[in-house]
Design a protein that fits this description.
Number of domains: 1
Strand order of the largest sheet: 1-3-2
Radius of gyration: 20 Å
Order of helices and strands: HEHEEEHEHHHEEHHHEHHEHH
Oligomer: single chain
Number of helices: 13
Strand content: 5-15%
Largest sheet: 3 strands, antiparallel
Bound molecules: iron/sulfur cluster
Shape: globular
Helix content: 40-55%
Amino acid sequence: MLLFEREQVYQNAAPVIMLCDRQGFARKVYPHRRFIPFTLDILGRSLSLSICYDNIDVRLAEIVPMARMLSDMINRQLETSLEGFNKHVSCRRGCSYCCYYMVPVSCAEAFHISREVVKLPHNLRERILVSMQEAGRCLINHRPPNPEDRHEDDTSCLYELSNWYRSLHLACPFLVNHICSIYDTRPLACREYWVFSDPENCHAASQDFVTVAPLPVRIAEVVSEVCTHMLGLDQTVFLPLSLPFTSTNSELDHKTWPAGLLVETFLEVLFKQLHQSSLSANSSTKADQTDKEPVLHEIIQ
Ligand code: SF4
């Protein structure tokens, strides 16, 4: 299936969509929409894209299909580049070791997921809702480490929180018979968690032997920052708590902004994060005095 056709199926009638560089054809299909073309440099290769949107007011959740499409395009580009270095990503559909890890989702994704759950077949939906209730009880009954008890930096706190979550052995409520029941619409954090090491290492109690790919940009973090910027507050939730979160914060879901403003903010944050990632990779590369392709160097080590 051609990429554009696949996008149409995947993002059927979404007000904000991501396109590869076949804008000429897309402009005929969407003559009244606006287009913002842009190019990303991913591991030294150009990715020509454009965001196409209706000039209407939209909710935060409506940027999620576009963001997922972008994440998939970047991932495909990365995978192709890395194969050239004989580096192969171990993650595959059906491998579920990391489905017991902490999965943070932005409020835009939480609202989007809540709509996807409604569309699931009745039996599957009921099963997921029961699993979510059980997971919610488990999270409430086990106290997470309190960052205020310690004087550690954000990375250490996150590492500790992540280890605490793993220690609960809590399966993701969307995991059914070891398969992700929402694989095609799974959250960005799941799409952007890539490992190169043996999948068996992901099953171990410690993450010390898991090699996680340092992606040049994580679209999950871009969407999260867009939400913080638009709402003026940081609302990231654990995936199993996403439905309770959406039902108690429905007023946030009803807020709307002009689609053009959300798209511009998204691109601003995307390029800022790409710039920061390239700066930090550059500084570590300079210290190593080795390679001229910083992000690539970091990944292929
Ligand atoms: S949403 Fe799917 S891929 Fe992500 S943790 Fe849950 S089961 Fe695994």
